[in-house]
Every structure is written in structure tokens, then in C-alpha cells.
């Protein structure tokens, strides 16, 4: 598979923390921006969805007594913080970038309009989709699957802190098995929590392959786009 012309990159908020316990590590953002610059220079059109877990997670908010919908909206706002930070780093490298938010906030970002997003991509701009799907009860993984389907991306690249999908958490179980290829059905049957079930089902319906790989390896994003075997591939 690959090389790909249009891809959707899903970044976890936690990945932006680096070794910190909260917030954004500028060294991580600088390195990610360099990797994205290589992607843009290669001619690949790139959409990005970022999580907000480095600032706020909806599920942890529920544990603190916040009502579910409100907690999810707070998580969506956290994704806007990350989106604006990444935009700043990318533009400093001369990469034209637009933040499109599912929650309207015109002073900070353009409202998400599908046809406008596709036009930006065609003009060589990097699109950062902020605000999740704009709806509570859906994760940013589902937002990634949804936006990828809407813009006609060929693949979803899920960049994480581990180098693929394992049978169990490899940090807790060193003997955990790493999978190289999985079907959507296997991910759902084995209850492998790489993406939530709604996201996996959406990718399956739209025949969107997913590659789960290690964000921390320099040049990994470009390697996956070139079609090199990296991480775990989820497909039919």
C-alpha cells in the first residue's frame, strides 16, 4: 500500500505531553512539525485530528462529578488549544495551515465546512480539525474516522506512544503479542482498545485502512505514507 495522496493523521493529546504529566512539550511539537513539513514537501495532502487528553479528558471529568455532555464539550475545547499550538509551530516553518473547528469560534478558527476543507487541501494547506465531531458522546478517534471519510482520505494514520497494536498493554505485560495486520472484525472481536468501536465501524463501512504506529520515531509519519511496513495495519 502507499504512497498516499491524501491522508488523515490522528494525534493523541497525550503524545504532545512528551515526558511531562500535563500540557504541551514544545520539543515534541517541534519534531512533529518537522515530520509534517516532510509530508507536505512530498506533495501529500494532510488533514490532522488532535485529541485533548493532555489538558482534559471527558471521562475523567465525569469521575469528578461533571455531567457527561459538559465534560465532553470541555474535552473538545482542549483539542482547540492543541490545534492552535500545532498551527503556530507549522506556520513558523512556512507551512500554510488552517484550523477548522466543529464548534464555532470565529475569532480562533474557521467553522468546519466539508467543501471548504477539501478546497484547502487541494491548495496544499494542512488542515487541523478541532472540536472533535462537535457532539458529546463521540471520541476524537471517531472524529478522525468521520473527517477522513468526508474528505476522501485514503488512510487513517493513528500516531501513538506505542509501536502498534498489542494483545495487551505492552508496558504492563512485556510478553504481550504485537499484531502486524488485523481485520476490522478482529479488532472488534478481540476488544483491542486501539480506537473505540464507533471509529472502527466507521472505517470498516468506508473501507478506510488504519495504521497504528509510534509517533516518537523521527520520520515515521513519512515512512507510513510511503507505504513502508510500520506499526499495525487494520483493514478488511
Question: Main traits of this protein?
Answer:
236 residues; alpha/beta; Carbamate kinase; nine-stranded mixed sheet; two-stranded antiparallel sheet; 11 strands; globular; ATP binding; nucleotide-binding; transferase; Uridylate_kinase_bac; ATP-binding
What can you see in these coordinates?
The structure is a single chain. This protein is α/β, with parallel strands linked by helices. It has one domain (6-235): 3-Layer(aba) Sandwich (Carbamate kinase), CATH 3.40.1160. The protein is 38% helix and 19% strand. It is built from 8 helices and 11 strands. A 9-stranded mixed beta sheet has the order 4-3-5-2-1-6-10-11-9, with helices on both faces. Strand 1, helix 1 and strand 2 (45-50) form a beta-alpha-beta unit. Helix 1 (26-41) crosses helix 3 and helix 5 (140-151) runs parallel beside helix 7 (197-205). The longest helix is centred in the middle third of the chain and has 25 residues, at 68-92. The protein is globular, with a radius of gyration of 17 Å. InterPro entries: AceGlu_kinase-like_sf, Asp/Glu/Uridylate_kinase, Uridylate_kinase, Uridylate_kinase_bac. It is found in: Cytoplasm. It holds the Pfam family AA_kinase. One of its GO terms (cellular component) is cytoplasm. Catalyzes the reversible phosphorylation of UMP to UDP.
Amino acid at each position: 500500500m502507499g504512497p498516499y495522496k491524501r491522508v488523515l493523521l490522528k494525534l493523541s493529546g497525550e503524545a504532545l505531553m512528551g515526558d511531562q504529566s500535563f500540557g504541551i512539550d514544545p520539543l515534541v511539537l517541534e519534531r512533529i512539525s518537522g515530520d509534517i513539513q516532510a509530508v507536505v514537501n512530498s506533495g501529500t495532502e494532510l488533514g490532522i485530528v488532535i485529541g485533548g487528553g493532555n489538558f482534559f479528558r471527558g471521562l475523567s471529568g465525569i469521575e469528578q462529578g461533571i455531567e457527561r455532555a459538559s465534560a465532553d464539550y470541555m474535552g473538545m475545547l482542549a483539542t482547540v488549544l492543541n490545534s492552535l499550538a500545532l498551527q503556530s509551530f507549522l506556520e513558523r516553518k512556512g507551512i500554510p495551515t488552517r484550523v477548522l473547528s466543529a464548534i464555532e469560534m470565529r475569532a480562533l478558527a474557521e467553522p468546519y465546512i466539508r467543501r471548504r476543507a477539501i478546497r484547502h487541501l487541494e491548495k496544499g494547506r494542512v488542515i487541523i480539525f478541532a472540536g472533535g465531531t462537535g457532539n458529546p458522546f463521540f471520541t476524537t478517534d471517531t472524529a478522525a474516522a468521520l473527517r477522513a471519510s468526508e474528505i476522501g482520505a485514503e488512510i487513517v494514520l493513528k500516531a501513538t506512544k506505542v509501536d502498534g497494536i498489542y494483545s495487551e498493554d505492552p508496558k504492563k505485560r512485556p510478553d504481550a503479542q504485537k499484531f502486524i495486520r488485523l481485520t476490522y472484525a478482529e479488532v472488534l472481536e478481540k476488544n483491542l482498545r486501539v480506537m473505540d468501536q464507533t471509529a472502527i465501524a466507521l472505517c470498516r463501512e468506508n473501507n478506510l485502512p488504519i495504521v497504528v504506529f509510534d509517533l516518537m520515531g523521527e520520520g515515521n509519519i513519512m515512512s507510513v505514507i510511503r507505504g513502508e511496513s510500520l506499526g499495525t495495519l487494520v483493514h478488511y
